[in-house]
Amino acid sequence: MGAGVGKEFNNLAQSFGGQGPGLQGLGPHGLGTNGLGAHAGPAAALLVHEAVMRSRRAPAGRLALVLHLSRLVPPAPRPYHVRIARSLLQDTAARHEGQVFTLANADMILLCAASGSGVGEGMSDTDFPPASRPTLATDPAALPAILLRLLRADMKPTDQLVSLWRLDEAADEVQAYTRARLREAEGLPGREERVPARVLGQSTMGMLADVDIASQTLLADAMAEVAHQAPMPDIVQRQTAILLGAGTPGGEGSSVLRPLFREVGFSIAALQARLAGESHTGQVAADPFLFRHVAGRMDSRMLRELGQDRHPDGSFGLLDELAPASDAEDEVPVPPIKLHINLGVPAILSEMFARLAITCARRGLRIGVEINLMDAMIDPEAFARARRVLVEHRMDLVLDGVSHAAMMLSKPWKVQPDLLKLEWSPRILDLPERDAAMLQAAITQADPARVVLQRAETEAALRWGVARGIRRFQGRHVDAMLGASRLVACAHAGACTLRQCVDRAAGTGAFARAGCRNQSLLRRAAPAPASQAGTGMGTRPSPAGVGA
Amino acid sequence: MISMARRREPTAELVTHRQEAAQLIAYLHECKIAGIARRACVVHLARLPADWMRPHHLRLARDALQPLAHADRARVFTLPNRSIVSIWRGPADGAVAESRAAIAHLFVDGETPVSPDLLWEDLEIPGSVDRLLLVAEQSIGTRPPAAPVGDGGQTFDPATLQALEALLTRADVARFVRRHPVCARGPHGRFTVAWERRMLSIDELAESLTPAHAPKTDKWLFLRLTRTLDRRMLALLSAPGELAGAGPFAINLNVASILAPGFLRFDEQLPVGLRGHVTIDLQPADILADPAAFLFARDFARTRGYRLMLSDVPANLLPVLPLDRLGLDLLMLQWSAGCTRPEMRSELPDPARLVLSQAHDAEAIGWGISVGIKLFQGRAVADG
Hints:
- The complex is a heterodimer.
- By secondary structure, chain A is α/β, with parallel strands linked by helices.
- Helices cover 41% and strands 13% of the residues of chain A.
- Chain A has two domains: 21-208, no CATH class; 212-524, EAL domain (TIM Barrel, Alpha-Beta Barrel), CATH 3.20.20.
- Chain A has an eight-stranded mixed beta barrel with strand order 6-7-8-9-10-11-12-13, surrounded by five helices. In chain A, strands 1-3-4-2-5 form a five-stranded mixed sheet, sandwiched between helices.
- In chain B, helix 14 links the parallel strand 9 and strand 10.
- Classes of the chains: A alpha/beta, B alpha/beta.
- At the A-B interface, helix 3, helix 4, helix 8, helix 12 and helix 14 of A face helix 7, helix 9, helix 11, helix 12 and helix 13 of B.
């Protein structure tokens, strides 16, 4: 799920390979096109196996290098990994009497002579200091280091990505590897190598192909149109972030699980579901620039809906629905949860936003605005103006969409956001020691008290964050924690499942919450602190009898 | 009859306000070209709820601005969205304070808890002329709110982008290539060309292919368009003989373009003597759009002997984008008044890795030299 325009993008971008322009299929040196002996696809397994067998007749001075692209962490290998790796290998093959084969599992194998010129042709020493002198990939012995450097961001440090064998010493190993690939190609399980099902179970070339850029632009238009026309409850979701307190459940002091803010945004999954008739809808989200454009167009719909106090029929507008200022059912007044909305910089500078700010101020609603890091980067001057606008309105500036890589490459906290949303990724757990230390240092500099770990989908994410001083979390795991806390406190929990409770909490319309018999608690996201529990709102003090 | 007159009245008023907006725009352009100094304020009545934008509110607001009407060369413009712009010459602090207080008294109360800062904006001409132009143009709908937000039409949309991308695949773009020298300051203060930035003039290209549209009005679609331009540029540079005898140069590329087949072809065709002398310029937003791809592209380009430069970095982004963290060779800093902030010096990377762009005058060059920068781009050094 994931409320917010920025939330589901990365997953989608990864799923669809992410990059725009390019060729379909094999790249610049497709099968048999360059006379260098490049082979690809299922038939390559047979060809490479035969080539190894031939090489065994005169193995002296011959090498076999296997680049295990199949071991990269998904969504890799992406089309560019394959394209560039093949280019590097072919460069070496051309200079060392070699051949390159691309196998069905995306691995590549280079068979070539061990010795050669090994010198980058035509290099000039005039401009580069020794430390940055370019090295051309012509020496087979230098290739593993180059490939590892290129691919380190997409591999697990513990995985062996390159195997380099001398045929006169390790021909058996090479042959075992190629035999395994041959068996796979013949539909038999290989014993020596683990090949991910994700690679074997589908058309490899299809998976590796670049996205179709021609249709992306029109799909972007279609998605923006849907966002403007569909009923808001159908396409908008909400998600509550929490502050993990230091207290204990039911104890004195702060609640262990305190709702921090509630983010409201378009659900890209819902929009894509409405575009189901269109093929390749994910390609819009896969292109970061098109996606930001679409997000910008959605902003006007969000602002229009939020700025509307009441509908023409007299019913309450979206703002009331999302952030009720008061709750008549409650005997114990609890301040409403702060509302967060995702907006681009141009939207914040618009008159529609100014009107929304006035509406919120008039009604005492607290708002935070989440701006994507890319939005801050593309027009820094406008971003600075937007920042001033938010300060004027006493609204929080939340920097959204900060990946761990962006956190290490840049210093996003220097734009001085009130909160910074760091995107959790399981990749964080696999970071090399140096990178992990760098990320830790970045969080410290950003101030853990300002960091929200978002996309916290698992307990591992929470544990990692807590170990680094982070106390603010948002994500599916948090949704489940909040849902469980509601079930514990709800007198009607016996009729509901945790999944139902979580889904209803994410809904933004009455229909989405239908079935809940404790709407007050659902709106609060979590039960009131222990000192207030049992005093009203249809809750019960004992967790006994919680529904499954 | 009465009802008809009532219906016509707002329309007539709107026409008048559109004319006033047009007059304001013309006046602002005149100030901009001639460098005329003025002071201005905007009373953003458009930000008030509809109930507060009745004709009598407008009259009251104009009355509140009366003290400013007596300032030197004072002019008042009411815009179609009911916001009011007042412009005058010289200091008028007393009148400003009086008018501002009157506006706050009229419109800031318990029912419309809008801060005076929101309703009132002080500006200076020519420094803030672009901001005033934006206010005026948005009020009459000739400019969308800086991006596709709002109810008005767009000047550049995905369909236009697709059409332009299709046109670009066939168009002869060679005539739109422009070269901008980056010059190094030598020991005797003389500037010599260190390398040339080769780029397609996008404004001219768009004017030629789609004159009704301005790609830069949508920054994201424009960025997307640059990928297509990258492909054409790389194809041009890969043409046989194109780079024969060429000196060091730089090209502006997207991360995705470095990883595309066109770059591999360009790399194959690069003359031996140029390898190690080509710089690739990258944009901040592009780098952060896909950090994993950036890291891969960065290391690949370096493997092939290219220098990498982070280009178009304004002063206020410098603390966010440390060169060492990004692992790039050079950073092109955009000259602006913001560069002269005292804290700027501590934010600068090694000056040997800096290029100062938009160095059009002596002030920029002087500042650059004072902080140790040796590479410059701009009109002030273009002639050597």
